[in-house]
Design a protein that fits this description.
Elements: H1 2-13, E1 49-51, E2 65-72, E3 77-82, H2 95-102, E4 111-113, E5 136-138, H3 139-149, H4 152-161, H5 165-178, H6 201-212, H7 215-221, E6 225-229, E7 234-238, H8 242-245, E8 256-264, E9 268-277, E10 280-289, H9 296-311, E11 319-320, H10 366-393
Length: 394
């Protein structure tokens, strides 16, 4: 039975007539091209101010900040920017990324009694909200300490509750990559000056926009005043974002949604802010103004917002805060690894937007074994048939 089966197979393989042309393979369904990118993402990597306006429309204000960006928070369209990807120390604006990475990890009403070791390692000269050992706080209290008082002590405790300092660094780095923010390198989650710690006007605007879409983040960022517990009593704290509170002679900006300011001697003054006017919400980032004093960062942000609300209907985007859908991510060696639960996809920096079309990968399982078995059987059958014919001829 086996030999006859092989013989039958071999007879099917022997050419009884001239072979015709090989059958054309079934065409692969075409993969639709990715959506057209309205602007080249490399535009925001160019030095200087990038803006696209029709003739007669007012240009953006001339600022002293080393880098800045203004974007539509709803669409992510970048209306204008200067040195958007210049890597600079972010100071406490990095706390926006800290919040994005860890806010969802703990319920706001959870209570925690702080121990002495949790407050170790806070940098000299850090901004503090006044967290004390042996005092019980709700997680929401600690978050208000982060957003209003920029408390590095509150960051230390929250980072500990979220797995520890190094785990928080990795989580923040992974969150940045997932958002398409490739300029940021996290060393100290509270934004304290640390060697190699950088971000950019682009990345900080990405974090600010993402934060507005998180109800808890948005609520904390827009809170001007709160009470902070101190055991059996509490004291008032005020948001250090003066555009929100109107403190220290800085006029409050109408419609401001807050977000986060920062300062260190290395970074200078930094700010991520957002404001709503009518149906439009704008987000701005301003890094290190070089003239105008300590409050220049607020006035330059104000000028950007005023220009943006007046010009947004006319400006054509020069980039987007949305992560590219079809770009590969930087190699893992370029940044600390993310949490083990969700490895980030590989990508290239946004300077080269690479469209990627995916095709089905053929299976190497049983589908490959069957053709090999068939070919092997046919060869054996042909050999048997040749041997039978030799015997017959003799």
């Amino acid at each position: 039975m086996i030999v006859s089966s092989f013989v039958a197979t071999a007879l099917l393989l022997l050419p009884s007539a001239p072979a015709g042309p090989a059958a054309a393979p079934r065409p692969v369904e075409p993969v639709p091209p990715p959506a057209a990118v309205r602007v080249d993402p490399a535009l925001l990597h160019r030095p200087g101010t990038q803006v696209r306006l029709p003739p007669g429309v007012k240009a953006p204000p001339v600022l002293s900040a080393r880098a800045w960006l203004i974007a539509d928070a709803a669409t992510g369209d970048v209306l204008a920017a200067r040195d958007a990807h210049l890597r600079l120390p972010p100071a406490s604006t990095l706390k926006t990324l800290f919040a994005l990475a860890t806010l969802s990890g703990l319920p706001a009403d959870r209570q925690h009694t702080v121990s002495e070791h949790e407050l170790r390692g806070i940098g000299d000269g850090s901004s503090l909200v006044g967290v004390r050992e042996e005092v019980t706080y709700r997680v929401a209290d600690l978050w208000r300490g982060v957003f209003l008082s920029s408390g590095n002590d509150a960051v230390r405790v929250l980072a500990g509750l979220n797995g520890g300092w190094e785990a928080t660094v990795r989580r923040m780095q992974a969150t940045a990559r997932a958002l398409g923010a490739h300029d940021t390198r996290v060393v100290s989650p509270d934004g304290y000056d640390a060697a190699g710690q950088v971000s950019s006007a682009y990345d900080l605007a990405v974090f600010g926009r993402a934060g507005l879409r998180n109800p808890d983040f948005a609520r904390y960022a827009a809170t001007p005043y709160a009470k902070f517990p101190a055991g059996r009593w509490s004291y008032g704290i005020r948001n250090t974002n003066r555009l929100l509170t109107g403190a220290d002679g800085v006029a409050r900006y109408p419609g401001l949604l807050g977000i986060k300011n920062g300062y260190t001697s290395h970074a200078g003054h930094t700010l991520v802010a957002a404001a709503r006017r009518g149906s439009r919400t704008l987000v701005v980032s301003v890094l290190n103004p070089r003239r105008g004093g300590a409050y220049a960062v607020y006035e330059e942000a104000r000028d950007l917002l005023d220009w943006g609300f007046a010009t947004a209907p006319h400006a054509r985007p020069v980039g987007s805060l949305l992560p590219p859908r079809a770009v590969l991510a930087p190699r893992a060696a370029a940044a600390p690894p993310g949490p083990p639960t969700a490895p980030a996809p590989r990508s290239v920096p946004p300077t080269a937007a690479v469209s990627v079309a995916t095709l089905p990968v053929p299976s190497r399982g049983p589908g490959l074994l069957l053709p090999l078995t068939f070919v092997g059987s046919a060869c054996l059958a042909a050999a048997v048939l040749w041997w039978v014919r030799r015997r017959t001829e003799r």
